[in-house]
């Protein structure tokens, strides 16, 4: 938000003196605008909960301006896929810049949220767990089959879109098959750097 600053009130005498001095010195004056920047911090240091829990965070993200910045501090074992999708959607739509700070555990849904941010920093003790969705469902066989198919299709799409370029093709296929991939801080940084290089190369080719 740009805000014009008014000059302080001056007497006629002081205005005239300023004018005379400018005439004598011959200096060019200047105008300026002040820029308001707000930095928000969201601590995700618990399990990811249901969408309703994040109403205020979603509202903040959607209302934030292009000069604002949002830090997400991660120390979470993951949690609700619905809550994760709600935050991922808001992150994709915000005009603000976003940064994930992986402080400790960043597992499952939390890892996908972290990788959805514009930038990512990893502490010396940060770690990440990548795996496919875990869920349970009951009911009539046709209903269960329909839910399993729909959930599986959504899970595979989210995994591919989020982990693509971060994990290698072979690692991604292992995760899609159900394996769990644990990454240390250095392993996360290496993959983030590789992803950044791929994205920069793609931008240069455009």
Overview of the molecule:
The chain is an alpha/beta fold. The longest helix has 23 residues, at 141-163. Strand 4 (69-76), helix 3 and strand 5 (97-107) form a beta-alpha-beta unit. The radius of gyration is 25 Å and the shape is globular. Strands 3, 4, 5, 6, 7 and 8 form a six-stranded mixed β-sheet that branches. The protein contains seven helices and eight strands; from the N terminus they run βαββαβαβαββααβα. The two termini are 32 Å apart.
Spans where pLDDT lies below 50 across 5 or more residues: 1-23
Rounded average pLDDT: 86
Per DSSP, the total helix count is 7
List the helices and strands in order.
EHEEHEHEHEEHHEH
Largest β sheet strand count, sense and barrel closure: 6 strands, mixed
DSSP summary, beta strand count: 8
Beta strand %: 15-25%
User: Helical amount among residues, as a percent range?
Assistant: 40-55%
Terminus-to-terminus distance: 32 Å
Taken from the alpha-carbon principal axes, the silhouette is: globular
Spatial extent as radius of gyration: 25 Å
| Structural class label | alpha/beta
Please give the structural blueprint.
Layout: E1 2-4, H1 12-25, E2 33-35, E3 39-44, H2 55-63, E4 69-76, H3 81-93, E5 97-107, H4 109-116, E6 119-122, E7 127-130, H5 141-163, H6 169-177, E8 181-183, H7 185-205
Parallel strand pairs: 3-4, 4-5, 5-6, 5-7
Antiparallel strand pairs: 1-2, 7-8
């Amino acid at each position: 938000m740009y805000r014009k600053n008014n000059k302080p009130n001056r007497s006629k005498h002081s205005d005239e003196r300023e004018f005379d001095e400018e005439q004598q010195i011959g200096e060019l004056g200047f105008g300026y605008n002040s820029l308001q920047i707000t930095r928000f911090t969201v601590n995700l240091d618990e399990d990811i909960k249901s969408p309703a829990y994040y109403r205020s965070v979603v509202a903040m993200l959607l209302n934030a301006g292009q000069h604002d910045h949002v830090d997400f501090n991660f120390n979470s074992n993951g949690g609700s896929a619905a809550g994760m999708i709600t935050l991922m959607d808001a992150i994709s739509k915000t005009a603000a810049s976003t940064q994930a700070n992986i402080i400790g555990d960043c597992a499952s849904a939390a890892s996908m949220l972290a990788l959805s941010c514009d930038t990512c920093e990893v502490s010396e003790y940060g770690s990440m767990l990548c795996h496919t969705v875990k869920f349970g469902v009951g009911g009539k066989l046709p209903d269960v089959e329909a839910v399993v198919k729909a959930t599986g299709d959504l899970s595979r799409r989210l995994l591919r879109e989020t982990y693509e370029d971060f994990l290698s093709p072979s690692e991604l296929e292992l995760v899609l098959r159900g394996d769990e991939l644990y990454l240390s801080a250095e392993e996360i940084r290496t993959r983030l750097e590789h992803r950044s290089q791929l994205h920069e190369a793609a931008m240069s080719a455009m």
